[in-house]
Amino acid sequence: MLSIQGLSKRFGGVLAANSVNLRVEAGEILAVIGPNGAGKSTLLNLISGLLRPDEGRIEFLSEAITQAPPEARTWKGLGRAFQIVQPFPEMTVWENLLVGALYGKPNTPLKVAERVVEEVIQLTGLAPKAQTPAGELTLLEDKRLELARALCTRPKLLLLDEVMAGLRPSEALEAVELVRRIRDSGVTVLFIEHLMPVVRALADRVVVMDYGQVIAEGPYDLVATNPKVREAYLGRAS
């Protein structure tokens, strides 16, 4: 579904992404992990089009999107939910989702957008909050709204950037179940996460980054025992 080849991005003298090669297969849940500053969010920004790479190539559904603007990537089926949620606080949950449905695909009729919102609001459990202003939601509900708004763009691949940050353990478990339901509905998922129990519970495959490079890849139990991964997280003395 997604293929990245030799992707690099520099910020001054810092190489935030260093010849990254990565693939995402249709139907899987792929986790990208690594210590702070490893280049994970930079990678998502490159995939979603918020940043342009200095080198490399990105293909989505067998089509090059390396230079495509973010909205073209969204229209093609690449959705993203952010770590820091930014809903329209004075608008209701329903209205926030309607924005995603109307603009997630070009020239979407209102009736079609409303049907999309109805499906997504049921999937994400937000129906009881449909007429609640977004500014009155709890953190967990805000996270659900961020996910739901991205789903309203009708993505084939959904990028999640630490959407469980700040949640209590019980809330994180609810979010894990929601992501599973999203995958089961036919959406492939690539997510960044620091909570290792969440990664272990969700990921079919894990990619580990450090200093802008991919240093390990495979099932969770395999990468968790990789000496390079232990060194990246714990230091050489480990």
Automatic annotation (TrEMBL):
Single Gene Ontology BP annotation: L-isoleucine import across plasma membrane
Q: Does the keyword Phosphoprotein apply?
A: no
What cellular-component terms does GO give this entry? plasma membrane
Q: Give the range the annotation lists for the signal sequence.
A: none
Which keywords appear in this protein's UniProt record, sorted alphabetically? ATP-binding, Nucleotide-binding, Transport
Q: Which residues form the ABC transporter domain?
A: 2-236
GO molecular function per UniProt: ATP binding; ATP hydrolysis activity; L-isoleucine transmembrane transporter activity; L-phenylalanine transmembrane transporter activity; L-valine transmembrane transporter activity
| InterPro entries per record | AAA+_ATPase (IPR003593), ABC_AA/LPS_Transport (IPR051120), ABC_transporter-like_ATP-bd (IPR003439), BCA_ABC_TP_C (IPR032823), P-loop_NTPase (IPR027417)
Write down what this protein is called: ABC transporter ATP-binding protein
